[in-house]
Amino acid sequence: MSLEKTCSKTLNEDSPNVNLMPPTVFFICLLAGGVLEFIYPHNIDILLASANLMTGIFIGIGGFIFMYIGHEKFKKTGTNVSTNLPATELVVQGTYRFTRNPMYLGGSIFFIGIGLAAGSLWILAAYLPLFLYLSYYVIPHEEAYMERTFGEEYIQYCRKVRRWI
């Protein structure tokens, strides 16, 4: 198959068409929070610094593991993880029994854990644009695509499993 046909096929395939990948926005928001914290330090003192660090690390690791398990379930079933590629299967097992978005939920918890570990109000505040991006752009595009692709099976899944938790 020629490169032109391959590119044409990829561009015409149905997908959520979210081309700015969520991990990219995650890192942009995290970097912005870190830069703001460096320029205008604004630490949070919920607990002692060492307790903030340990709590943040614990929460962050938990979020990362949850995100990773969701990611690996996609890979194991052969479904595309990228938000600009078509889905090959509706994944409803594993962490997807508890939330329709375990990768986003786990990533969010990981982000918040980093903010707590750093004791940084700026990093915690920088999560807000990521949350808005996921909630009002990425997830609605993905849900519309999943409904188009999997129809009633996806609708039934949505009735049983919440978007976040």
Summarize this, please?
With 165 residues, the chain is mainly alpha-helical. The chain has five helices and no strands.
The main sheet comes to: none
Q: Quick one: how many beta strands?
A: 0
Mean pLDDT: 90
**Strand composition percent:** under 5%
CATH-assigned fold name of the domain at 51-164: Four Helix Bundle (Hemerythrin (Met), subunit A)
| Share of helix, binned | 55-70%
Unreliable sequence segments = 1-12
CATH class value of the domain at 51-164: Mainly Alpha
Structural features, described:
This protein has 165 residues and is mainly α. The chain has a domain at 51-164: Four Helix Bundle (Hemerythrin (Met), subunit A), CATH 1.20.120. Helices cover 69% and strands 0% of the residues. The chain has helices at residues 3-12, 22-39, 49-77, 102-118, 121-160. The longest helix has 40 residues, at 121-160. It starts with a helix and ends in a 5-residue tail after the last helix. It is found in: Endomembrane system. One of its GO terms (cellular component) is endomembrane system. GO terms for molecular function: methyltransferase activity. This is Protein-S-isoprenylcysteine O-methyltransferase Ste14. Keywords: Membrane, Methyltransferase, Transferase, Transmembrane, Transmembrane helix.
